[in-house]
Design a protein that fits this description.
This protein is an alpha/beta fold. It has helices at 14-23, 70-80, 105-115, 133-147, 207-212, 228-236; strands at 2-6, 28-34, 53-55, 62-66, 86-93, 119-125, 154-159, 165-168, 178-184, 190-196, 215-220. Manganese (II) ion (MN) is lined by residues 8-9, 39, 92, 94, 105-106.
């Protein structure tokens, strides 16, 4: 199996190395990742200038850093290695659950693979004070062992700090609180932090619920954003244009 590994934290992230080390048990691994952190870049692509890549040592893995976005890395990787069987994105240092999935570069890199007709899995982990990526590896291995065998298009996997099991779940949609927090820089100029925090009780069976219950959340995704319920409803109405 030929595995392309991308991320949004950059080629030097311990997350991409951990994923490569685990994925190497399942096939031939190549790494192509941004040359600097591109978290929360979502599905941005670089269309106004050319992309290039430089070979970069990441232990013994064949690895390259790219002057582009996470989605760029996937598109370029698939162009360079069209024989790729699956694209893995991560392991992101930080969860990508609920509405944060809209902002995630990790997920966008996986979505890009899906757009191009390739299977993809996004993997992200909770970060706490006592975080140890080595501890997550057996769970990453078990996730890949199961998911690589299944014919699923696009999957989002999130690891709690101390996983105790696995749960199939849906995306949590209830809790979005994207707020601007004003502050001041050392020269007295105003600046703003854009933060996203959950604001409501978690709903059982969602990714956020899984993480809060120390379960690895696994959510199959699709690219189709159509709201079929509203589409059908509006088509029934006699609307004059
Ligand atoms: Mn990131």
């Amino acid at each position: 199996m030929k595995i392309l590994i991308v991320n949004d934290d950059g080629i030097y992230s311990p997350g991409i190395l951990a994923l490569a080390e685990v994925a190497a048990a399942f096939g031939e691994v190549k790494l192509l990742a941004p040359n600097m952190e591109q978290s929360s870049m979502s599905h941005a692509i670089t269309s106004s200038r050319p992309l290039s890549y430089i070979r970069t040592p990441v232990k013994d893995f064949e690895a390259y850093r790219v002057n582009g976005t996470p989605a760029d890395c996937t598109a370029l990787g698939i162009f360079l290695w069209p024989e790729t069987d699956i694209v893995l994105s991560g392991i992101n240092l930080g969860l990508n659950i609920g509405n944060a999935m809209w902002h995630s570069g990790t997920l966008a890199a996986a979505k890009q693979a899906s757009l191009m007709g390739y299977r993809a899995i996004a993997l992200s982990t909770e970060i706490t004070e006592d975080f140890d990526i080595e501890k997550q590896k057996p769970f990453v291995h078990r996730s890949l062992d199961m998911l690589l065998k299944e014919d699923m298009e696009l999957v989002n996997v999130n690891f709690p700090n101390s996983p105790q099991g696995f749960l199939w779940c849906k995306q949590s949609l209830r809790h979005y609180d994207g707020v601007m927090v004003p502050g001041e820089d050392p020269r007295g100029r105003k600046h703003y932090w854009f933060t996203v925090e959950p604001i409501e009780e978690v709903e059982e069976g969602t990714d956020r619920w899984a993480i809060e219950h120390n379960q690895v959340s696994i959510t199959p995704l699709r690219l189709d954003l159509t709201n079929y319920e509203e589409l059908e409803g509006i088509k029934q109405k006699d609307i004059h244009w």
